[in-house]
Amino acid sequence: MLLSSFVNRKENRQLIYAKMLDGSFPVFSQFGNNIYASDIVQNCIDCIATEISKLQPRHIRTDSNGIQTTPKSSLNRLFRFSPNPIMTTKDFLEKVIWQLYFNYNAFIYPMYDTVTDQRGTTRDYTAFYPLNPTRVEFLQDESNALFIKMYFSGGNDFTLPYDSVIHLRKKYSVNDIMGGGANGQPDNGPLLKVLQINDTITDGLGKAIKSSLSIRGVLKIATMMDDEKQKAERTRFEAAINSSESGILPMDLKGEYVPLNIDPKVVDKDTMEFVQNKILNWYGVSLKIISGTFNDEEYQAFYEKVLEPIIVSLGQAFSKTMFSKRELEVGNEIVFYQRDMMYLSTPNKLKLLEVAGAQGLLTDDQKLAILGYSPLADGTGSRRTISLNYISVDIADVYQLKKAGSKDNTQGGGNTGA
Length: 418
Known about the structure:
Layout (H helix, E strand, L loop, with lengths): L15 E2 L9 E3 L9 H14 L3 E7 L5 E2 L4 H7 L8 H15 L1 E13 L2 E12 L3 E6 L5 E6 L5 E5 L4 E4 L19 H24 L4 E5 L5 H17 L11 E5 L9 H15 L3 H5 L4 H27 L2 H5 L2 E6 L8 H13 L5 H7 L25 H22 L1
Antiparallel strand pairs: 1-7, 2-7, 3-4, 3-13, 5-6, 5-10, 7-8, 8-9, 11-12
Helix pairs in contact: 1-3, 1-6, 4-6
């Protein structure tokens, strides 16, 4: 939508289709079978996208001594609140994950200005835009440099260097470039079969309930009647039903009521759970994760199986595209940090504080954040303490040396006296 102003650059360059190892043409449509009409599928993807949207992306730099710093860069400015003018960081991450699960491929375009100063030429990043092309083609020029041509639903198409686009892939397997199946689309065949069974079960359950509430019996009228007399007789019969308080229906010799014993069959609970669990297992999301009734261990399993691979992929894909080889070599990278462990139960939060706090790994403000409190108002929350009488980390070594020296002097004096 906003790309036409900055990416549609025409160059006098001869491009041909990139050569695929299997001999196929690298042209991929982004539309697969619509599995997303299922409420279970939508709930699963929504859980994953919502959790990923809580991440805090950061540009960090690690020096040769392993010390990490957070530079005051344009990247951190964008990552903090708003990667582009129409999205917050949460919106941005959530949209990227939805597109990744819709298409098994997600494309992000980083917009930047080139700045030249005494340090050389650098990039000043101004926005990140998640893209939603309907079709992509991979091309190459005379030097075998790879390009991506994207077609959009509005009729526009843009050709960009592939290394200037952040490309996330899911189930990257048989295709050389795209995630998903051999055609670069989601390979949802096995899931579609299960969804069809689930839809049949759900539809049958609705029909069974409806049938049980509809016709309950047949009124046989012993005489020949025209339509008007039949209607009048039915009205009289219904009035008799409505006026009966004892459950006994009075009738004359002209009519006979024959009850219909309707016994609708529905699928048993175990079968329904089996079908639904197959859908949930496809996405690695349990019912407790969807309902929010999980415990710490269940969330940790969900994190390690589903969220962690996405987090690793995000960090590597962003770092690979955002930085040159030289910048990567000197320790620049993008890391997607989790928020404080707010999902932990109160006993496990206290256990975390006891272990991590005793080692001097957390500041006072970080400890307060884990418990849900605001930072210290006097600004002293950056202090770290350890379990050595909870003194400042800065003087712990001096304290230990003094204590060791005092002990040696005591032992020496005892030996002299002996």
